[in-house]
Amino acid sequence: MAAGANQAIPTAKISDVIATFRPTRLFKSGDSKTSVTSLDFDDSGELALIARDDETLQIYNCKEGKHAKELKSQKYGVHLARFTHHAQSIIYASTKVDDGLRYLSSHDNSYIRYFRGHASTVTSLALSPASDNFLSCSADNTVKLWSLNSPNAQGELKIHCPYLCAYDPSATVIAVASPPTQSILLYDLRNYDKPPFASFDTQSYEARFTPKTAGRDWTKIEFSNDGKHILLATNGAGHFLLDAFDGAIRWFCHRAAGSTMRASPGTHPPSASPPAGQGDVCFSPDGRYLIGGSGQNGILVWDTQTPRPAGAEKVLEPMTELPGPKWAAI
């Protein structure tokens, strides 16, 4: 066996290196007016999938720092593109012709399956972390449960303006967010046809921290990887970090420069101006940090484990700002 074959790969704590992150590659489209509308990584983290409003999908090899492939979807448009658990297959929402979902092989750019049933714009897609099932939300007031193996929906929830959805890490709970009702609903996936087992009212939080955008401009919902927290992202002055068990606010993650000027789900069709987005903040892999864009160049980082003195305001300022050439939407 070659010498060094069993040597461990060097590792470092995210807390030790996150403030040192810097851009190493810059990929540009041929048209300065083209915007990225969604971004996703495959399970290995090696490939990044980009949807753009020029109706193309772009795949990048992050390990090599190279553009790998372009896939065109001029007939149907493309938004909310996601890798499945197989790195050569993709699901995405149509923006033209119909409001269907498409299951695409990136190997030969051929469609594997169509998922039809929504009667209005799809506003959110979430892939199960444990299986080939996925969720879709739509402006038609439905949330549909699908399997990649069947063109027919496996289930449906009828909810007023269910614009955002997410699975918890165990894939047993789904969260659905309805901005106009200022509520987050939690369902047991094994009994999704039953009423939600928990409902969190955000009215008081929004009145306190984001009164100008209350009841609208929510952009993303996401569970932390330990399932203890829920991130509710907004297009306003910051984002909400909530306790996943009782909905209590942990932090309001403030950004002084405001949003990245992306359209919120449910407020504009994906082809409208400003460009569509999928939220501009996310958890770090260890679940400790929030990383997001703002109305200034670069990226903000919030440490959600920052101690809070008793009686102090629940406002968390960024711990650092990572430099960048443009506004960033994660």
* Terminal Cα span: 42 Å
Please state the average pLDDT score.
90
Which class best fits the helix and strand makeup?
Answer: mainly beta
Q: Strand arrangement, largest sheet? A: 17-18-19-20-24
Sheet with the most strands, sense and barrel status: 5 strands, mixed
Structure characterization notes:
It is a single chain. By secondary structure, the protein is mostly beta strands. It is 3% helix and 39% strand. The strands form 6 sheets. The chain has a 5-stranded mixed beta sheet with strand order 17-18-19-20-24, with no helix packed on it. Strands 1-2-3-4 form a 4-stranded antiparallel beta sheet, with no helix packed on it. It starts with 13 loop residues before the first helix and ends in an 8-residue tail after the last strand.
Write the layout of secondary structure elements.
Layout (H helix, E strand, L loop, with lengths): L13 H4 L18 E6 L5 E6 L3 E6 L4 E7 L6 E5 L5 E5 L7 E5 L4 E6 L6 E6 L5 E6 L3 E6 L7 E4 L5 E4 L5 E6 L4 E6 L9 E4 L1 H7 L8 E6 L5 E6 L3 E6 L5 E6 L26 E3 L5 E4 L6 E5 L11 E2 L3 E3 L8
Parallel strand pairs: 20-24
Antiparallel strand pairs: 1-2, 2-3, 3-4, 5-6, 6-7, 7-8, 9-10, 10-11, 11-12, 13-14, 14-15, 15-16, 17-18, 18-19, 19-20, 21-22, 22-23, 23-25
Short descriptors:
single chain; 4-stranded antiparallel β-sheet; 3% helix
